[in-house]
Design a protein that fits this description.
Elements lengths: L1 H47 L7 H11 L5 E3 L4 E3 L4 E10 L11 E10 L7 H9 L2 E5 L4 E2 L12 E5 L15 E2 L13 E5 L4 E3 L11 E5 L7 E2 L8
Parallel strand pairs: 6-12, 8-10
Antiparallel strand pairs: 1-3, 2-3, 3-4, 5-11, 7-9, 9-10
Length: about 240
């Protein structure tokens, strides 16, 4: 008696689990078909620039090509935004269970896929070429290149100080000041005026020293030769 009561419940539970797995397979197949259809429509619109590719009947036909199961799919709620070129595909479908659960009614599902119209492919080689072709700024004696003309390393702030005060002064990068190779030779008195920059680690005996002038040129990065990127404005992109 007990077996006759438990056995139908066991069979029903087993069938329910099996069919739930079947529902997951349906969902996976519809989602795969939706992704493939979305990618094809994206390329087709870019090639033809015609919104006819977003017609619901056309989309349904493409979906049915990839769904092997006997599922009725509607693409009526799919939409396309002309301004942003966004494509939203919505696949509505219903599945009727082979056995009734209280009432014999279908289960309704919706799968969505969001993409944009195809705009071409940038290869890595093209990206490298574009990077080498960007404008940069260099000085005649400089060993680095700059991506921004406003870089503080290009716009020097020159100060006049006493030679004796150099012992206590530091540049903005924290370094001490040493004699310039061009104009810093000789013996200096503590009260003698020298010139320093906000950036750098050299002091100059003459304001007209070539190291204090900036003859800035704009070139292509491909023309920078062996110059290294500026640690302040170029290496960070």
């Amino acid at each position: 008696m007990e077996a006759s009561l438990v056995f139908p419940v066991f069979i029903f539970a087993a069938l329910s689990i099996i069919y739930m797995c079947k529902l997951l397979l349906y969902e996976d197949e519809v989602q795969w078909a939706l992704v493939r259809t979305g990618r094809e429509v994206s390329v087709e619109y870019a090639a033809s620039e015609k919104s006819a590719v977003m017609d619901s009947l056309y989309l349904t036909m493409k979906m049915n090509r990839y769904v092997t199961e006997d599922i009725s799919i509607s693409m009526v709620r799919s939409r396309f935004n002309e301004d942003t070129k966004d494509i939203v595909l919505a696949a509505d479908y219903s599945i009727l269970l082979p056995f009734p659960i209280l009432h014999h009614f279908p289960f309704h599902f919706t799968e969505k896929f969001h993409t944009r119209t195809f705009s071409g492919v940038n290869t890595r080689a093209e990206g490298d070429f574009q990077e080498r072709d960007i404008p940069v700024y260099v000085t005649e004696t400089g060993k680095v290149y700059h991506k921004r003309l406003e870089c503080t390393y290009l716009k020097l702030s020159i100060s006049q100080v006493k030679y004796g005060d150099l012992e206590y002064l530091r540049g903005e990068n924290g370094g001490k000041y040493y004699a310039c190779e061009s104009c810093g030779g000789g013996v200096f008195l503590k009260e003698q005026n020298v010139f320093v920059c906000n950036f750098g680690n050299r002091f100059h005996s003459s304001r007209a020293c070539q190291k204090l002038t900036r003859n800035i040129r704009r070139i292509r990065l491909s023309e920078a030769g062996g110059r290294l990127p500026c640690s302040k404005c170029a290496s960070s992109g």
